[in-house]
Amino acid sequence: TPSLYVVATPLGNLQDVSMRAQGVLTEVGAIAAEDTRHSQRLLDALGIRTRLFPLHEHNEQAAVGQVIRMLEAGQHVALISDAGTPAISDPGARAVARVREAGFPVVPVPGPCAAIAALSASGFVDDGFRFVGFLPAKQAARRARIEELRAQEVPLVFYESPHRIVECVADLAAVLEPSRDIVIAREITKIYEQIARMPLGEAPAWLAADANRCRGEFVLVVAAAPEVEGLGADAERALALLLEELP
Ligand code: SAM
């Protein structure tokens, strides 16, 4: 039966594309891609000639209609995003839902995913995690969202772009306990990959210490809420301020 293949593509390192992904991308009738110019470079590098067409936030309705018509006409279709696993914090999610509703099988072709890659190297051993994705762009909404997540008893996983990394880390440090650990994973699988773990209270200064640390794509993993009923975040912040004053 004609199916939609949801194909994971590399986060940066071309060698992370699976053999199955290459086979599927070669054999489908067409590939829906978030950014066709970006994805054309991937296909060229892999020597794949399949036709690409755009499926992004701004043409989603029409593009999904096109996908469904192709499936109805008996063709297989693949969905890819700019990097990693489609439909995880990118426009593919609603397309997948609509193809399912239309009654066609949706087949995952798993592979790289930024959140899972960061978690796997984070050293957080808790079982379970809360995938949050992108925080709101406006500060008030962002802080409110972090506040809502403060009591979560599992590590929190965020996506962030270089445009807002400084503000985002500053707000995490301001709202959550400064003693909680954060893992800042940037440029995963790329030349300047960097994965650093530190207490949240030190993270703003760590970013400020070197302009390169604010470049690239980021996954942030924040430790679970502290288990013991300690001082609470407000008291901890007050204590940290007082400690700074000590000689
Ligand atoms: N669906 C993709 C996935 O789950 O792998 C993510 C798509 S989302 C639009 C893009 C975000 O993923 C970036 O802003 C960044 O937070 C994260 N990301 C993608 N590639 C990355 C990389 N190489 N290193 C670190 N984070 C990355």
UniProtKB/TrEMBL annotation:
Residues 4-203 form the Tetrapyrrole methylase domain. GO terms for biological process: methylation. It catalyses: cytidine(1402) in 16S rRNA + S-adenosyl-L-methionine = 2'-O-methylcytidine(1402) in 16S rRNA + S-adenosyl-L-homocysteine + H(+). Its main location: cytoplasm. Keywords: Cytoplasm, Methyltransferase, rRNA processing, S-adenosyl-L-methionine, Transferase. GO terms for molecular function: methyltransferase activity. InterPro entries: 4pyrrol_Mease (IPR000878), 4pyrrol_Methylase_sf (IPR035996), 4pyrrole_Mease_sub1 (IPR014777), 4pyrrole_Mease_sub2 (IPR014776), rRNA_ssu_MeTfrase_I (IPR008189), RsmI_HTH (IPR053910), SAM_MeTrfase_RsmI_CS (IPR018063). Pfam families: RsmI_C, TP_methylase. Its EC number is 2.1.1.198. It is an enzyme of class 2 (transferase). It is found in: Cytoplasm. Gene3D superfamilies: Cobalt-precorrin-4 Transmethylase, Domain 1, Methyltransferase, Cobalt-precorrin-4 Transmethylase, Domain 2. PANTHER family: RIBOSOMAL RNA SMALL SUBUNIT METHYLTRANSFERASE I (PTHR46111). Catalyzes the 2'-O-methylation of the ribose of cytidine 1402 (C1402) in 16S rRNA. Belongs to the methyltransferase superfamily. RsmI family. This is Ribosomal RNA small subunit methyltransferase I.
